[in-house]
Amino acid sequence: MAMLQKNDTLEIELEEDTVKQNGLIAWVKTLGRVIFQFLLMAAILFGGFFFMNKLIDAKVEPPKRPPFKTVYTVDTVVAEPGNFQPSMVVYGEVQASKTVDLRSLVAGKIVEVSPKLQVGSRIEKGEMLFQIDKFNYETALDSAKSTVIETKARIAENQAMIAIEEARIKSLQQQLALAQSDLERISALQRRGSATPRAVEERELIVSQRSQSLEQSQLNLVVERSRIEQLRAVLARAERSIEEAERDLKDTALLAPMSGVIRENNASEGRLIGANDMVVSMYRDDRLEVRFTLTDQRFGRIQSDKIGVVGREVEVIWVVGGEEYKYPAKIERIGAQITSDRGGVEVIASIEGDLNDSPLRPGAFVEVTVPDKLFENNYRVAETALYDGNKVYVAVDGVLEARSVKVLARDGDSIIIDGELSGGDEVLITRIAEISEGLNVRPPQPATQN
Length: 450
Prior knowledge:
The chain is of the alpha+beta class. The protein is built from four helices and 23 strands. The protein has a six-stranded antiparallel β-barrel with strand order 4-13-16-15-14-17. The radius of gyration is 60 Å and the shape is elongated.
């Protein structure tokens, strides 16, 4: 039994060795095939590369053409010095030259309103806008007139009393003089022993009584004269009251202070209004203004001109509903302060001409054409001629040369410049992306006719 087990073990080991040998042989065969394929591919690539180089070396070179220079067909303009005055276009808003807010000068109930008192309607100067109830003011006027009549009557009465007192004073003065003469006569008789002391005392009493009466009349005269001055003061106040009452009565009818257009209306029949209530607002329509802003650069430029800013004529253009309305205007004044938020100076121009039949109204947004400064002995070319903001190119014998310039102003699609230019220079106005000095250029060839 032991021998049999030993033989079985040997057989198993032999079989395992056989399997291992067979796997090793298979792996070696696979590696050989991979190496062969790689060598074959390398040989093919090398052969192709070698064959391609042979073909390239055997290629016959075609004859080379001589190089030629690039010439650009461009447009130029001949620079001619001259005097130019461009125009700048700004935008502004129309406003009324004069606006009035009409307030009621008296209080009361509105009893009548003009049929023309409508927003947008035109009112002539002096037309009645509305009427306030006049009853209270007519009563006040009648009362003031009655006070004047009464005061004048009292003054006349006092003047009569003064005349009476003055006559009485004259009479008392005469009586006093007679009593004093009688006293002197009695006193003389007493000294001679012809009159008694009692007679002298009676004469002295008479003199004293008449003197007191005279003083009383004189005081009464002063009082009457003082009273008449008081009455005259009362009369003056009463007459002033008449003027105020007449004025208040007149102010019950609010009249248009000027010819213009109603922009706001708060008046209606039956409404109770107080003094100083704003009832109607209107503006003068025969004179309108345009308010616009000039940049600091533009303002400074035209300010340095001979004409200056104020007095410069401009043109106002209003486009509405596809229609264009043009109005002449003149700059009348400069704004009260610099508009820092807008970056410029505010300017006001007055629109000239007859505007009574014009549809233009305050608040319209308009275009304003302002003549710029007059530039003397400068050049004007198309804006396309400018490169890098300070350079133009001039064609000299078919070759471009750069010239430094300074842009003085813009005029539509053109610019006014000054710099290294001379009369007769051909300035390039065609845009070239690869622009540089030395480029060859030529003018457009004329079209051939068949």
